[in-house]
């Protein structure tokens, strides 16, 4: 048995070496390329069988190690690149697929490849991993974006893509895409005009709600989701990206209630997309939080997982608002007491010296509230 395992291991090692020697530049290759480089179809099948290769689409292979090392959103782009290679560049990518290719944030949407085709065809002609949408689009709604290995994808333009996603997807997912599209140059009024061209199309009412809710100040998918939840709750709405001066510099708060001196921060080390979580970044997060607290602000920090439990998160936010309101009330009472205590001493000092009394050495919190 041991000798058999050793023989199998040697066979796999030899196959891995042969695949590595024949592999072209880039993570993905067509079967025809690999065959020209000396790999037989049997060796490609064995590569898949032994977990060395993945076949994402017909006639297209990916090295399994590169797939495993890729982040989730990178895997989705590899899936699209694989599909493009399997169809010889003729497809028009739309909806969620176009959003990914434009560089939008995409949250929880299905992993199917979305295509727009000018003819009706049975879904079985495309496979279970492809969603085909039948319609004819004018040329001005089609553009090209760069893909891997110097190739180009034909996609719906950014405006058409956002409107398509707003009609098709649950509102929260569409808002995440739309917020990032605003940061990429989307003009909201153009999207609204495009929506009006087909007012009776399925999903138009939901799309109107989505477009009205978009906010370019959101800096991540997590902030977009948080803002969507906050807008649905019966509470005072916060300010976004509020500039707050502290002894350590000026910081921007993701969400802030100015009168309550409460900050709601989406934790950057756990954001769904590609954010650095090195020690230096975490140190800066702690430094920022201490500075805000010294300036009299309360900080409530939330993570990606919290957004999946909106009822619990609502209770946490409401409790934080109540605590902040009570602290603010106590601080204002202290200020009035301090002012009342300081006034007689100031008068006495002026009478004795004939000059104004020096100012009290108040704490940063008290000064900030004056």
Shape: globular
Any low-confidence stretches, pLDDT <50, length ≥5?
1-8, 270-276, 356-370
Count of helix runs: 14
Largest sheet: 4 strands, mixed
Total strands: the figure is 12
What is the strand content?
15-25%
Mean pLDDT: 85
**Order of neighbouring strands in the sheet with most strands:** 9-10-11-12
What key phrases describe this protein's structure?
16% strand; 370 residues; four-stranded mixed β-sheet; three-stranded antiparallel β-sheet; alpha/beta; disordered C terminus; disordered N terminus
Report what the structure shows:
It is a single chain. The chain is an alpha/beta fold. Helices cover 50% and strands 16% of the residues. The protein has 14 helices and 12 strands. A 4-stranded mixed sheet has the order 9-10-11-12. Strands 1-3-2 form a 3-stranded antiparallel sheet. Helix 7 runs antiparallel to helix 8 (171-183), helix 7 packs across helix 10 and helix 8 crosses helix 11 (221-231). The longest helix has 44 residues, at 310-353. The radius of gyration is 29 Å and the shape is globular.
């Amino acid at each position: 048995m041991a000798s058999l395992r050793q023989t199998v291991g040697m066979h796999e090692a030899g196959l891995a070496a042969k695949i590595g020697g024949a592999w072209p530049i880039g993570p993905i290759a067509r079967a025809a390329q690999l065959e020209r480089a000396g790999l037989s179809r049997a060796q490609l099948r064995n590569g898949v069988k032994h977990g060395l290769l993945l076949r994402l689409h017909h006639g297209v292979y990916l090295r399994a190690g590169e797939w495993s090392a890729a982040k989730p959103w990178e895997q989705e782009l590899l899936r699209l690149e694989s599909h493009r290679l399997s169809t010889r560049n003729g497809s028009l990518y739309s909806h969620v697929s176009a959003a990914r290719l434009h560089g939008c944030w995409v949250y929880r949407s299905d992993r199917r490849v979305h295509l727009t085709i000018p003819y009706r065809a049975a879904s079985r002609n495309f496979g279970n991993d492809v969603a085909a949408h039948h319609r004819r689009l004018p040329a001005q709604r089609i553009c090209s974006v760069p893909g891997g290995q110097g190739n180009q994808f034909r996609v719906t333009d950014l405006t058409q893509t956002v409107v398509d996603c707003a009609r098709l997807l649950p509102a929260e997912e569409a808002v995440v895409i739309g917020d990032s599209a605003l940061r990429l140059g989307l003009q909201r009024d153009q999207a609204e005009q495009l929506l009006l061209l087909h007012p009776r199309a399925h999903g138009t009412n939901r799309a109107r709600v989505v477009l009205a809710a978009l906010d370019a100040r959101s800096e991540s998918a997590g902030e977009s989701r948080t803002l969507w939840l906050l807008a649905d709750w019966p509470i005072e709405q916060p300010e976004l990206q509020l500039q707050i001066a502290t002894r350590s510099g000026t910081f921007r708060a993701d969400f802030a209630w100015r009168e309550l001196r409460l900050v709601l921060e989406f934790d950057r080390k756990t954001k769904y997309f590609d954010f650095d979580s090195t020690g230096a970044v975490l140190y800066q997060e702690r430094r920022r939080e201490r500075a805000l607290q010294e300036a009299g602000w309360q900080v409530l920090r939330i993570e990606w997982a919290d957004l999946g439990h909106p009822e619990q998160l609502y209770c946490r936010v409401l409790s934080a608002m109540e605590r902040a309101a009570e602290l603010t009330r106590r601080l204002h009472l202290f200020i009035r007491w301090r002012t009342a205590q300081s006034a007689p001493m100031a008068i006495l000092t002026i009478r004795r010296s004939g000059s104004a009394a020096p100012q009290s050495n108040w704490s940063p919190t008290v000064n900030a509230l004056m």
